UniProtKB/TrEMBL annotation:
It comes from Dermatophagoides pteronyssinus. Gene3D superfamilies: alpha/beta hydrolase. PANTHER family: AB HYDROLASE-1 DOMAIN-CONTAINING PROTEIN (PTHR47533:SF4), PROTEIN CBG21859 (PTHR47533). It comes from the Eukaryota. Residues 369-379 have a biased composition (Basic residues). SUPFAM superfamilies: alpha/beta-Hydrolases (SSF53474). This is Uncharacterized protein LOC113798201. Residues 369-388 are annotated as: Disordered.
């Protein structure tokens, strides 16, 4: 029986921890095999989460975060099409940021990177850390707060201050809504949620005693070994996890991401998006084994999406109903499609993302024009002000 999480996470001798800390700080992680991608891939090293871990270390006397108050130095692999853009002026580039789910990588967006990259749009897709970072650092839990800090620090490192559109798959909705509601470090114009996970416990997280308990066990070395040996069989018997259990690490990464997601706060953030009138595109299928469609419907209700905002497709991607042009909320709904609808029906989704982006840019340019025009009118009219 697990009584205290801290003991479980703190496995390993102090020397081991120091060595691991040293390795991380000096980035001596095992050299990854260089894969060839059909789009440009770059690397950047960031320091992240120091402010967050400093705050968290004060919450408990024996906090595990005390060892990480200087943050984590991490190397990020990311797709970036900037070198394909003729105009490399950061301020004027149309920019898309794509955030993958757990597990996932920038490869999930391959067709999107190639399409938008060929249109002179800067498309950036970073990889999140995988489960190994939890094993190495014993602090990074893939929580919404950590991922939010990670993305902000990454964008700062590559000098991106403005994003026209975020594409956010699955559990990335949690850090994404924080970015959209924050807008201090990075200005974001609009968002597309691809098969987002929900504001209440999703299908794949049930039963709670299994996923939440197993996340804690998995944070310790012995527990990991037991899970890697027996986990797949257990999952097949209970049918409780819907991520493909090819790798127990991926299953646990998915469970851990959900466990620390603060999913109950999502409703508050969605209401704020509606209030701030942030243009939102939703993509969903009715055969998602990870997130039941009722959760998706509820999220659309929170955003006050109406029938006129829905565009429905049959299982072959043939459009059945069309949403109103210029809708601020757009919903693409595909029959018999699962958790990777944006890949299965990539042609249709890319086309709609492109239209959505054009509308956002049109609004943005109009806004700039009106502000500029208004500014000149004020200057012209200052001499003729009629003082009452």
């Amino acid at each position: 029986m697990i009584v205290k999480t801290d003991q479980i996470i703190d496995f390993g001798s102090t020397n081991q921890q120091k060595q691991q800390q040293f390795d991380l700080e000096h980035n001596e992680q095992p050299p990854q095999q260089q894969r060839q991608y059909p789009y440009p891939v770059k690397f950047v090293t960031i320091n992240t989460c120091s402010t967050l871990y400093r705050q968290w270390s004060k919450l408990k006397k024996k906090s595990i975060y005390k060892r990480a108050i200087d943050g984590l130095n991490l190397e990020i692999e990311y797709a970036d099409t900037i070198d394909l853009c003729r105009n490399k002026d950061n301020d004027n580039l149309i920019t898309i940021l794509a955030l993958h789910g757990a597990p996932g990588s920038h490869e999930d967006f391959e067709q999107y990177i190639q399409y938008f990259g060929s249109k002179q749009i800067r498309f950036i897709a970073p990889n999140y850390p995988d489960i190994n970072i939890t094993i190495q650092t014993k602090v990074f839990r893939h929580s919404a707060e950590e991922k939010f800090e990670y993305i902000k620090d990454f964008l700062r490192a590559i000098n991106v201050k403005s994003i026209d559109l975020i594409l956010s798959h699955s559990s990335s909705i949690y850090p994404t809504v924080r970015l959209l509601c924050d807008q201090n470090d990075v200005h974001v114009n609009a968002v597309a949620f691809f098969n987002p996970v929900g504001h209440r416990r999703i299908q794949a997280m049930r039963p709670a005693w299994f996923t939440e308990g197993s996340v804690k066990i998995y944070q310790n070395k012995f527990g990991r070994t037991v899970y890697q040996i027996f986990g797949k069989g257990f999952i097949k018997v209970t049918g409780s996890v819907t991520v493909r259990p090819d790798s127990m690490n991926n299953v646990m990464l998915s469970a851990q991401t959900m466990r620390y997601s603060k999913y109950k706060q999502l409703e508050k953030y969605l209401r704020k998006l509606k209030e701030n009138q942030i243009p939102t595109l939703w993509v969903c299928g009715d055969n998602d084994r990870l997130v039941e469609k009722e959760i998706f419907y509820e999220m659309i209700d929170i955003m006050e999406g109406k029938e006129c905002n829905w565009q429905k497709y049959d299982c072959n991607g043939k459009m059945l109903t069309q949403y109103q042009p210029d809708s601020n909320i757009r919903i693409l709904f595909f029959e018999q499609s699962g958790h990777y609808t944006f890949q299965k029906h990539s042609n249709e989704v890319i086309k709609e993302c492109d239209k959505f982006l054009n509308q956002i840019l049109h609004q943005r340019n109009n806004h700039h024009y009106h502000n500029h025009h208004h500014h000149h009118k004020i200057h012209k009219n200052t001499d003729n002000i009629d003082h009452h």
